[in-house]
Amino acid sequence: MSLYSSNILFPGTQIPNGIAAQMNDKPMNRAVYLDVTPPRSSYVKSANRILPMTNNLMDFTIGKDVIYENIKPVFMILRIMGVLPLTRPSPCVNRFHLMSPAMAYSALVYCSLVAYVLYLSLHKVQILKTAEGKFEEAVIEYLFTVYLFPMMVIPIMWYETKKIAAVLNNWVDFEITYKKLSGRVLQLGLQRKALILSVAIPVLSTVSVIVTHVTMVHFKLMQLVPYVYLEILTYLLGGYWYLLCETLSICATMLADDFQQALRHIGPAGKVAEYRALWLRLSKLARDTGIANTYTFTFLSLYLFLIITLSIYGLLSQISEGFGIKDIGLAMTACCSVCLLFFVCDEAHYASHNVRTNFQKKLLMVELSWMNTDAQTEINMFLRATEMNPSQISLGGFFNVNRTLFKSLLATMVTYLVVLLQFQISIPDENQKQESAVDSPTYNVTESTVPTTISTTLSTLLTTIAKRRRKH
Fold first, then answer.
1. Does the record carry Repeat as a key word (predicted)?
2. Which segment of 40-44, 189-193, 401-405 scores lowest on mean pLDDT?
3. What is the pLDDT of residues 311-322, one digit of tens each?
4. Fewest beta carbons less than 10 Å away: which of 129, 204, 302, 402?
5. Does 289 or 222 have the greater pLDDT score?
6. What integer is the mean pLDDT of 174-201?
7. CA distances from 268 to 129, 145, 276 (A)
8. Beta partners for 296?
9. How far is CA 373 from CA 268, 362, 452, in A?
10. CB 335 within 8 A of CB 298
C-alpha cells in the first residue's frame, strides 16, 4: 500500500497504512496508584451551563457510602449508647473530634454509668459479706463483679474511633474505584441483617439479665440497669464485628466474580492491572479493620475467656449436689459467651479466606493460552501480589483472629478449670468441718488433764527426795 505524505489532521507526519504514528506511541497499560483518590467530575457554575447526562459511565461520584448505610442501625445504637462518638459533617465523610457534641454526649453517658455503678458497689459489698464461705460460692459472687468489666471498653472504643473513621473513609474510596472499574454501584444487601441485629441483641440481652436476676439469690432488682447496658454493649460489639467481616467477604466474592467475568470477554493487561489495584485496596482494608479495633476486641476476647471459665466452673462445682435453679443463669451465660467468641473468630477466619484464598483460586482457573504476553505477565504478578500481601485480620500484630485462636483459648480454659477443680477438692467440706468440731472437745479435755498429771508427778518426786535427805 502507498504511504500518504500529507494529512490535514497530522501535518508533516507520514501515516503508514493509514494509521497515525501517534497512535502507536500510546502505552498499552495505564499506571494505577493506590493512594490517589479517583478524580471526581467538577463543573463550573454558570447560569447557562449544560449539565452532562449522569450515568455510571460518566459520573464516578457516589451520593452516599454504601458500607456505612448497610451497617447504619448498629452504628446508631453504638452512638446512642455513647460508645462510638463518630461525626458525619457530610455524606461519605467520617470524622472524630475530641471537642465535639458527640464526644461530650458520650462522656456524659459514661460518667452517669460510672456514678451509678459506684453507688451500687455498696450493695455489692454486702452481698460478698453474706457469702456462705464455700470456695465455689465466692467464685460465683465474684462473677458478678466481672460482669462490670466491659465499662473499661468504652474509653478504649473512644481512642479507636479515629481509626474506625479512617477505615470508613477508605471504604468510600474503594466504592468509587469499584464503580469506575465495573460501571455499577457496590451492592451488599446487609441492611436487613443489621436491622435484625440492632433489634434482637438488645431484646435477648435484656431477657438474659432478667433470667439471671430471677434465678440468682443475691441478684438485686436495682442492679439491672448497668448489667443490661453492659450486656447489650458486649453482644452489640460482636454484631458490629460480624457485619464488618461480612462486608469484606461479600466484596471479595463480588470482585472475584467480576474479574472472572471480565476475562471471558476482554483480556487486556490494563484491565488485569486495575483489578489487581482494587484487590490490594481490599486486602489493605482487611488489615486496617483489625488494626482499627485492636484494643477493643483484644479486651473483649480476654473478657469472654474469663466469663466462660468462671461460668463453667460454677456449673461443674455443683455436679455433686445436682443442678439447681440458680445454675440456669450460669449455663445461659456460658453458652452465649462461647457462641459470641466463636463467631468473632469464625467470621474473621471466613473473611480472610475469601479475600485471599478464593481470589487465588479464581486466578489459577484463568485460561492463559489465548492471552498475550503482557496479560499473562499481569496475571502472574497478580498471583504474586496475593501471596506477598497478607490479608489476615490481625489485632495489631498481637495475634490473628481465626479459628486457631478459638481453639487455643478453649485449651487454656480447660487447663484453668482443672486447676480450679483440684483446688476445690483440696478444701474440706462442711461435713468434715462438723466432724472435726465434734471431736475437738475430747481433744481439749485431754489437753487440760495433761498439765495436772505432770504437776502431781513432780510434787511426788520432790517430796521423796526431801525425805531421803533427812534420813541421811
1. no
2. 40-44
3. 888 888 766 666
4. 129
5. 289
6. 88
7. 77, 63, 13
8. none
9. 10, 19, 111
10. no
CA–CA distance from 59 to each of 90, 270, 413 (Å)? 19, 21, 55
Place of cell 449508647: 81
Distance, CA of 16 to chain centre:
63
Place of cell 506511541: 25
3-state secondary structure the chain: CCCECCCCCCCCCCEHHHCCHHHHCCCCCCCCCCCCCCCCCCCCCCCCCCCCCCCCCCCCCCCCCHHHHHCHHHHHHHHHCCCCCCEEEECCEEECCCCCHHHHHHHHHHHHHHHHHHHHHHHHHHHHHCCCCCHHHHHHHHHHHHCCHHHHHHHHHHHHHHHHHHHHHHHHHHHHHHHHHHCCCCCCCCHHHHHHHHHHHHHHHHHHHHHHHHHCCCCCHHHHHHHHHHHHHHHHHHHHHHHHHHHHHHHHHHHHHHHHHHHHHCCCHHHHHHHHHHHHHHHHHHHHHHHHCHHHHHHHHHHHHHHHHHHHHHHHCCCCCCCCCCHHHHHHHHHHHHHHHHHHHHHHHHHHHHHHHHHHHHHHCCCCCCCCHHHHHHHHHHHHHHHHCCCCCECCCCCECCHHHHHHHHHHHHHHHHHHHHHHHHCCCHHHHHHHHHHHHHHHHHHHHHHHHHHHHHHHHHHHHHHHHHHC
- Alpha-carbon distance 312 to 323, whole Å? 12
Sign of the dihedral through C-alpha 249, 250, 253, 258: negative
Q: With the C-alpha atoms ordered 344, 347, 353, 359, is the resulting torsion angle positive or negative?
A: negative
**Candidate from 103-117, 174-188, 237-251 with smallest mean pLDDT:** 174-188
Rounded Cα distance, 135 and 141, in Å: 10
CB 216 within 8 A of CB 311: no
On average, the pLDDT of the chain sits at 75
Region of residue 396 (left: phi > 0; alpha: psi -120 to 50; beta: else): left
C-alpha distances (whole Å) from 422 to each of 313, 317, 394, 413, 414 are 11, 11, 36, 14, 12
The Cα–Cα gap between 106 and 87 comes to 12
